[in-house]
Amino acid sequence: MAPAENEMHRLLYTFFIALTNNFDNIGTRIAYSIRGIRISLPINLWVSVITFVVSFGAALSGKIISGLITREVSSILAMLLLSAIGSWMILEPYRKKNRDCTVGPGEKSICHVLLNPKDADMDDSKHIDFREATLIGIALSINNIGGGVSAGMIGLNSFLIGSLSALISFLALWAGNYISEFFIRWKISNKAAFVAGLLLIAIGIEQII
């Protein structure tokens, strides 16, 4: 493969992994829009900063791990991880949801918000504050760890993974109502997750071909 073509593939992989890392952001924003919950610009920027730190750190960790093992083992591990994440994305919409923490009646614990970022408006104010945004950022970024580590293991740029993940996170939350109306009207949330999952599996398999 020519150097220019190889670089183009790497950029495409970086974009696709960053995009699939942020599908939960879109789903969360749809839920917020339906409930009339607002996210201000400073709050959105703060969530993006958290997304960058976690995604960059995960990709950097993957790069460090790949330096400690052979290229072949690194490729196999990245393939398995990407395939597992892709399969999870495909099956997630059909799984029975039963994620919660034990709290008192009408209460929303920090644990509950971390497991269910769509319920981050803990005081029902219809506005996300910095405390709630921090929980949202952490909860949504947890999903980026697997993809970020995989990206680092296949040699993608850690800073670019973090930056693109943060940018897509910002755009997903900022676009808000427009994205929500589009996904709801055409009923493509599950279809988009299915395509994204297949894409990750394909990228993973490509690493060992």
Give a structural overview:
The chain has one domain (8-206). The longest helix has 28 residues, at 41-68. The model is unreliable at 103-107 (pLDDT under 50). It contains 10 helices and no strands. It has 209 residues and is mainly alpha-helical. Helices cover 75% and strands 0% of the residues.
Cα radius of gyration in angstroms: 18 Å
Helical content band: over 70%
What does the main sheet amount to?
A: none
**Number of discrete helical segments:** 10
Strand content: under 5%
Number of domains: 1
Spatial gap, N to C terminus: 13 Å
Q: What's the overall geometry? A: globular
Order of helices and strands: HHHHHHHHHH
Briefly note the structural class of the backbone: mainly alpha
What's the number of extended β-strand segments?
A: 0
Q: Residue-averaged pLDDT, rounded?
A: 77
The low-confidence runs, each spanning 5 or more residues with pLDDT under 50, are 103-107
Layout of helices and strands, plus pairs?
Layout: H1 3-21, H2 23-35, H3 41-68, H4 71-91, H5 110-115, H6 130-142, H7 144-153, H8 158-175, H9 177-186, H10 189-206
Helix pairs in contact: 1-7, 1-8, 1-10, 2-9, 3-6, 3-7, 3-8, 4-7, 4-10, 7-8
List keywords for this structure.
globular, mainly alpha, 75% helix, 209 residues, single chain
Nutshell version of this structure?
With 209 residues, the chain is mainly alpha-helical. The chain has helices at residues 3-21, 23-35, 41-68, 71-91, 110-115, 130-142, 144-153, 158-175, 177-186, 189-206. The chain starts with a helix and ends with a helix.
